[in-house]
Amino acid sequence: MQHPIKRRKFIRQSSLGALGLSMFPFNKKVAPSDKLRVAHIGVGGMGMAHLNWFANLPEVDVVAICDVDNLHLSKGLAKARELQPGVKVSGYSDFRQLLENKDIDAITCATPDHWHAQIAMLAFEAGKDVYGEKPLAYSVKEGQQMLKSMERHGKIFQLGTQIHAGDNYHRVAELIQAGAIGKVSKVRLWKTGDTPKLGQPKVQAVPKNLNWDMWLGPAPYTEYMPERCHFNFRYFLDYSGGMFQDFWCHIADVVWWSVQPGGLKSLRAEGEAPKNSIADVPEWINIDYKFDNLDIYWTSKVPEIPGAEGRGIGAYFEGSKGTLLCDYSRRELRINGEVMEDIPEIEQTIARSPGHQQNFVDAVKNRTLPESHLAYAREMTLPMHLGLISFRLGGRALEWNSKKEKFRGDKEANALLERENRKEWNLA
Fold first, then answer.
1. Which helix (H) or strand (E) holds 268?
2. Cβ proximity of 270 and 285 under 8 Å
3. 360 closest CA partner among 169, 83, 162
């Protein structure tokens, strides 16, 4: 993709960032004409982290903030102006108006999951590159549409899996790809955590500061109650998929990077929704995935394996020569009865990241693939969607055709690969 960004001729890249010396190279001065102009859509939670990260990159000017909640919008604008005094920052309550601003080069999106795909596709169409918070999309169909849209418009996308930039995942991938534990045949993934006890609350009047209809957007309409809104969105299948969907890509990422699972053949999930609660996502979920030459098992509790105790999230690779256990920042190899953190003889083969956000900025300027690019993110995210479909069908065993991306002989399951948006909010 060789599409230069309009209005500017960007510098090739941050020299310090390329060397991996600093996530935020504060001592680097950048001419105003070389600045990447970034806007943030959704600043109620993770979006504020986006704002802080990008505002601290010398090559970036944060120029716009958007949120459907005026309280969030005001807070975001105040923070942007505090972090970048002298930079004009505009506020929007409708992201469509923001996307019409031709002076914006890229956006970040940290809305609830059910908005991710449409905002990204409309941004691509408007000529913007996108840093999108995980998960990639609400459904399998949306992920397919996002990839086609990005390729059609020649844009850049980075998934917000910040842990991908850390040294630990780089080293795990190097060790496994170098054959340190032999051929990997099984992987165990897990994430513990409870779903909040939301009970059976009553419908309330929509607060004046919130555009509830737009917050719902493409999702089915329902009357407002605060227990369904903002952070709690992740506990409703209309918008997300619970703890499982929230953390799948953070830990599955190291698996897809290390062994590139391919040829998914079948899966089956078992789990339960919270009792006496309006939340309907899995309280716990176990899933068995069968790939070509690889089995992946997901659980909501810590598996009984050496070294896993006390780790609320983790990945455990079983190879022909040994095992490797890791979480975000630690790793432990067991080979021939010996426990070790590393094998120094295995050379470093993967270039280290200058920081996840800096990598996105560099990719935008150079028109290159970022670390967590869309095609990779879609492949890694797809099994998550399929696991939730099996859960929604009562734990039905499902056969999968990887080439056609369809279930074999199951119309009901295939119907759940996509969702019809509310007509008035079917924008992309």
1. strand 266-272
2. yes
3. 162
Q: H/E/C letters for each residue in 196-228?
A: CCCCCCCCCCCCCCECHHHHHCCCCCCCCCHHH
Residue 9, pLDDT > 80, answer no
pLDDT in tens, 302-332: 999 999 999 999 999 999 999 999 999 999 9
CA distance 182 to 35: 46
What CA–CA distances, in Å, run from 220 to 165, 211, 238, 375, 416?
A: 36, 15, 7, 28, 15
Confidence of residue 33 (pLDDT cuts 50, 70, 90): low
Domains recognised in the chain with CATH numbers: 15-164+354-374 (3.40.50.720), 167-351+380-425 (3.30.360.10)
Give yes or no for residue 10 having a pLDDT over 70. Answer: no
Residue 34: predicted pLDDT:
84
User: What is the Cβ-side half-sphere exposure of residue 408, based on CA atoms within 13 angstroms?
Assistant: 11
Strand partners for 88: none
* 3-class secondary structure, 251: helix
The residues, any chain, with a CB within 8 Å of residue 119's CB and separated by 6 or more, are 41, 95, 107, 109, 111, 130, 132
Q: Which structure tokens are listed for 372?
A: 């967590």
Helix (H) or strand (E) segment spanning residue 358: helix 356-366
The strand pairing partners of 187, in sequence order, are 296, 317
- CA dist 218 and 115 (Å) reads 7
Helix 242-259, helix 167-177: angle, nearest 10: 50
Radius of gyration (C-alpha) of the chain in whole angstroms: 22
Long-range interactions of 306-312: CB distance < 8 A, separation 24+? 306/334, 307/332, 307/334, 307/339, 308/190, 312/191, 312/192, 312/193
238-292: per-residue pLDDT in tens? 999 999 999 999 999 999 999 999 999 999 999 999 999 999 999 999 999 999 9
